[in-house]
């Protein structure tokens, strides 16, 4: 099966009558991403002077620790961005989920006197842990600042930090606050915002992401994601290395979410997968290998691709790569124009492959991807969390 066709000149404009019921939001929000990235880039450009005034003194501090935080997909945004931002800034950069900060705060913020920039990713800005994490940082850290990247100008997190001298609220385009259940536009716009705001032109490949994603959505790769789902496979594995390991985690999560758990998904690193998780494989498993642009790391990704291609039925293993060298063309989903990009930037167009797989798999299972949990077992904004007071001594 295939999702609705799109005008190649405008990939987020779909032939709406062919979009199945319950998929309109998700379908649109996947395809609008290249256009929103252009808007996000322009927005950061407009705020560049203000951003530099805020971030410049922080980044000049040799002991600065940058903590990238969020929950669920927002946590993966931080993990994907971390390697590129560490290289770009020359500072210690860590990705720590808000769920970890909230549950074990003293372990996350052991060095209470170390200058820290907490970069918070939040689609709605209303998740309990997102609010708790910034409050914990305020309580435990003597020298901290906040960069809040959110899609919701009216959210609690934006309201809490707007106007504070130690905070900067960077908003993504309003359309990026996905109305569908799963984070698609919100993820990539927040990720791009962080890479642009903190890394800037020191992150390779950001200027090429929009064209790469447009080509992917309007070319054969979009059809090939549907063809993989049409094989009737009941489990998927995503693997990658470094930033692309985090992308693998987000890809597996997207498939679980949009299919309502009907399709099982697993993520691991290219090297780590052999150490036990390989037992997950059956003859009805698909594997997607994200192949790094780094010449050294790439070798391990290609090794696992070849090993699993020999072990599984023909066509069950595909590579997502910016370069086809060493990979079979018929089993490589090529992300054009990104061969020189940092892997954190490559992840921006590459994640569209996983979003399309998840959307098609959801429809194949008879699930409505805009609301895969109609009975409320899992919610768009997490519910049921009690934030316990942090001890004062």
Task: For the structure shown, list the relevant keywords.
393 residues; alpha/beta; five-stranded parallel β-sheet; 14 helices; 16% strand; 43% helix; single chain
Instruction: Provide the spatial order of strands within the biggest beta sheet.
Output: 4-3-5-6-7
Radius of gyration: 20 Å
Order of helices and strands: EEHHHEHEHHEHEHEHHHEHEEHEEH
Query: Could you list the spans in which at least 5 consecutive residues all have pLDDT below 50?
Result: 1-9
Number of helices: 14
Helix content: 40-55%
Main sheet characteristics: 5 strands, parallel
Extended strand count: 12
From the spread of the alpha carbons, the general shape counts as globular
Q: Mean pLDDT score, rounded?
A: 93
* Secondary-structure-derived class: alpha/beta
Distance between the termini: 59 Å
DSSP strand content: 15-25%
Compact overview of the structure:
The chain has about 400 residues and is α/β, with parallel strands linked by helices. The protein contains 14 helices and 12 strands. It has helices spanning about 25-30, 35-45, 50-60, 75-90, 100-105, 105-110, 130-140, 155-160, 185-200, 210-220, 220-230, 245-260, 295-310, 345-365; strands at about 5, 10-15, 65-70, 90-95, 115-120, 145-150, 165-170, 235-240, 265-270, 285-290, 315-320, 330-335.
């Amino acid at each position: 099966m295939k999702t609705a066709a799109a005008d190649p000149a405008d990939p987020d404009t779909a032939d709406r009558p062919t979009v199945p019921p319950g998929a309109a939001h998700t379908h649109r929000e996947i395809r609008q991403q290249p256009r929103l990235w252009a808007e996000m880039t322009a927005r950061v450009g407009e705020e560049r002077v203000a951003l530099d005034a805020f971030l410049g003194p922080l980044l000049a501090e040799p002991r600065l620790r940058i903590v990238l935080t969020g929950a669920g997909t927002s946590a993966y945004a931080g993990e994907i961005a971390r390697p590129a931002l560490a290289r770009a800034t020359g500072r210690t950069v860590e990705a720590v989920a808000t769920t970890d900060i909230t549950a074990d705060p003293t372990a996350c913020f052991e060095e209470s006197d170390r200058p820290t920039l907490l970069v918070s990713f939040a689609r709605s800005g209303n998740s309990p842990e997102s609010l708790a994490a910034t409050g914990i940082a305020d309580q435990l850290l003597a020298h901290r600042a906040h960069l809040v990247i959110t899609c919701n100008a009216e959210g609690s997190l934006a309201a809490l930090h707007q106007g504070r001298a130690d905070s900067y609220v960077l908003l993504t385009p309003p359309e990026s606050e996905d109305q569908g259940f799963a984070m698609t536009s919100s993820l990539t716009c927040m990720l791009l915002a962080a890479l642009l705001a903190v890394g800037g032109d020191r992150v390779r490949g950001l200027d090429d992401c929009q064209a790469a994603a447009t080509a992917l959505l309007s070319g054969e790769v979009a059809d090939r994601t549907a063809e993989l789902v049409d094989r009737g496979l009941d489990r998927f594995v995503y693997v990658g290395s470094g930033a692309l390991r985090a992308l693998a985690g987000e890809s597996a999560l997207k498939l679980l979410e949009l299919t309502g758990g009907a399709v099982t998904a697993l993520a691991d690193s290219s090297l780590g997968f052999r150490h036990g998780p390989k037992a997950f494989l059956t003859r009805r498993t698909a594997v997607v290998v994200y192949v790094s642009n780094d010449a050294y790391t790439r070798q391990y990704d290609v090794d696992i691709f070849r090993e699993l291609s020999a072990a599984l039925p023909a066509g069950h293993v595909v590579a997502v790569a910016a370069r086809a060298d060493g990979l079979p063309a018929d089993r490589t989903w090529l992300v054009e124009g990104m061969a020189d990009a940092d892997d954190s930037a490559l992840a921006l167009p590459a994640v569209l492959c996983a979003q399309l797989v998840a959307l098609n798999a959801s429809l194949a299972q008879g699930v409505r991807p805009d609301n895969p949990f109609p009975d409320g077992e899992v919610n768009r904004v997490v519910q049921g969390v009690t934030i316990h007071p942090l001890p004062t001594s």
